[in-house]
Amino acid sequence: MTLSIPHPFPYQGSKRNIAKYILPHFPSDVDCLIEPFCGAAAISIAACTYELSQSVLLNDLNKPLMDLWFEILKQPEQLVERYEALWLEQQLDKKAYFFKIREEFNQSHQPHHLLYLLARIVKGAVRYSAEGTFNQSADNRRSGMQPATMKKNIISVSRLLAHKTSIQSADFREIINKAGKRDLVYMDPPYQGTSFTRDHRYMNGLTYEAFVEALSVMNDKGISYLISYDGITGNKTHGKLLPEFLCLKHLYIHAGRSSQATLLGGNDETIESLYLSPALVERLVAEKSNEIYTATRKQQELALI
To answer: What are the tens digits of pLDDT across the range 177-195?
Structure first.
């Protein structure tokens, strides 16, 4: 059965469309699903829709984003009312109004301002300057998500997550250090790109070396984790593969046509990597073995009867 999965706001890089390929690699006994780079938290939302985790920890170093998440979970009605007021006020001059709200957001970091900006920018493509200010422009052909649709999405996400989710804004290493052996960490870190430059979707970058070191520590602790990290679009490779010494199971997910290629009139398909940690693979193998053992015992009992 396919369930309807809500999404709180547009966000480029969200794994909402490929969550169905990621969830089958969840063990059945997840105490807490931890997203250290949560963004729009697409995997947590999908996992909770299918009741695959008892609790959730959402984290992102982007503090204004996590303040928005706090409003979504704790004060959704107030948030959508403020969003609707902004959406209605913009109608006389959407372009000028967007820049006005963007300037106000960079000064005050109000959650409803960020929600409005995310709804208006091109394809949810968040961009920050080197100084950490939000500097993406709007898609002036559109007004952003209709208030009624936004309300439906926000309220649905809040009902799904509010009672089981905690929120933090800290360095990812601090967050993954909280993981226990019955938890599952899903990581979609800052995109490497093709030249290993700073990812402008994030206020702070993440070096390949620092990430690999953190994964090595997680392996030593026996932590189960999944990673979306590098990929391929057409003939172009994005990012550097994670090293073999980590002993990760490397899978490829066909994510469909590239949005950038579509804009340029192309037809290139995007293939994304998914890495499974040794501890996670061990858990999944053990579950499969137990299923086979249980099925065999049932067959033996039936034969005796």
So the answer is: 999 999 999 999 975 542 3
Average pLDDT over residues 53-82: 97
Q: Which amino acid is at 103?
A: E
What is the pTM for the complete model shown?
0.88
User: What's the gap between Cα 130 and its chain centre?
Assistant: 23
3-state secondary structure the chain: CCCCCCCCCCCCCCCHHHHHHHHHHCCCCCCEEEECCCCCCHHHHHHHHCCCCCEEEEECCCHHHHHHHHHHHHCHHHHHHHHHHHHHHHHHCHHHHHHHHHHHHHHHCCHHHHHHHHHHEHHHCCCECCCCCECCCECCCCCCCCHHHHHHHHHHHHHHHCCCEEEECCCHHHHHCCCCCCCEEEECCCCCCCCCCCCCCCCCCCCHHHHHHHHHHHHHHCCCEEEEEEEEECCEEECCCCCHHHCCEEEEEEEEECHHHHHCCCCCEEEEEEEECHHHHHHHHHHHHHHHHHHHHHHHHHHHC
CA 302 – CA 80 distance, rounded (Å): 57
108 to 45, 82, 86, 133: CA distances (angstroms):
28, 15, 16, 11
